UniProtKB/TrEMBL annotation:
Pfam family for this entry, one: p450
Phylogenetic lineage: Eukaryota, Metazoa, Ecdysozoa, Arthropoda, Hexapoda
Protein name, UniProt field: Cytochrome P450 6k1
GN (gene name): 552418
Binding site for heme: 457
UniProt source species: Apis mellifera
Subcellular location: Endoplasmic reticulum membrane; Microsome membrane
Similarity annotation: Belongs to the cytochrome P450 family.
Cofactor(s) required for function per UniProt: heme
Amino acid sequence: MFLTTWLIPDIIAVASLITVGLYFYYKLYLFKFWHKKGIFYVKPSFPTGNIMPIINGKLSLAEFFRDIYEHNKHHRLVGIYMLYKPYLIVNDPNLIRDILTKEFTNFHDRGIFYNEEVDPLSGHLFQLPGKKWRNLRVKLTPTFTSGKIKQFFPILNEAGNILAKYLEEEARKGSTIDVKDIFARYSTDIIMSVAFGISCDSFKEPNNEFRYWGKKIFDPKPLWNALILFAPQILNFFSISYTEKSVTKFFTNMFKQTVKYRESNNIERKDFLNLLIQLMKNGYVDADDESLSNNVNAAKNKLTMMEAAAQAYVFFLAGFETSSTTVTFCLYELAKNQDIQNKVREEIQTMIKKNGDLTYNALNDMNYLHKVISETLRKYPPVVILNRICTNDVKLSTTDFCIPKGTCIAIPVFGLHRDSNIFPNPEKFDPERFSEENIKTRHPYVYLPFGEGPRICIGLRFGLIQTKIAIINALLKNKFKFGPNTPSTLEFEKGSLILIGKGGIHLNIEPI
């Protein structure tokens, strides 16, 4: 006891010296990076740089980057510090095009957390770097052709019919519904069926285990999410898994058991799981009209069971949250703008009457619906920033600045989408922004809900069809209106990696 008391002053003195040393190291070295490079930057604070509003939950990720964009958009490039790391925010659409497309060979990695040894489910297409990403992308691209997605259509349509029956019952009761919850159930049923071959019927069993795990994965974790995006080196240094072990165990076991069952019983089903099994067996998927030949050499690089499980897992992540939030935001805006709701419903009714039923071709012919969803994705992009890391020293064509190898890049999607200079009156919900005439007047790299270039979202067509089927079945026989608890202005969930409305969105539903 005496020894411990005697040591306390020394411990405090050492801790103070370390703190003072770190302070000057940050101020005189780390936080001088952008100044030395001659790049305009936002003044950082010790020891978190500019990221504290995200860590303490004051701002959502979207709000944080929008604020920086709005205050500094007259600068083509803006430097910030996320913890100890310098980040380069790219505001200029021409430079964004260079990074995502023209100079892709120098910006092909996202620079976010990935470690297959400690976190096996992180080995999926979204997070993989370099050569691993390229090899996997080549294998997975044929699984998302329009031909393959057309094969999935009956599964999607069946889920849409179940959704329609549920909503009709709620409409007859004149219910106020939690839109996010209902469409998360719809998304869960689709993803579990297409990616894992499992029927879970979330409308009859809203608290099933798949819903439980989906909610658990997307629980807001401000500090944890900041580390995966902006300081993955910390997780790697301490060999920490971002994915909880219980989540990894559940999804890998479920995937292995389903694959084993199909193989033991010679079951084939036209779904994503079947395509993953082909990649495990052959190293390629069967050809269709858009992929006319198989790559027989790909057999040398068959997917392992864990690699395939990781792809099914990210398919679940993307479908569970992003599609359901897009539908939720879309119905919120349609309830707020009844004239737009009526117009899109008229198109839906006309096309279904013309075709006799909802078909794949009829869905793709609904032009106004596509505008409505595009405008939803403009106002509420699920992914609010695009991350890249510079893999070689490179000077972009229209600047005098050489971006050093290892520099982290952030493209402020949410800021661009809400920029009044690009989209006049950006808070207004206006599907006509996406008429052919208006699209031609804009720079193609200011609207980026799915990214752009070689790393554009591989599942965008599937996601759009999933979203459209939900909207069609919601609006065909029902009307949505604001209820007493519907907020006139939406707030966003703090600590979430993607854009989510805070506290759910409740709307009144009634039959038409």
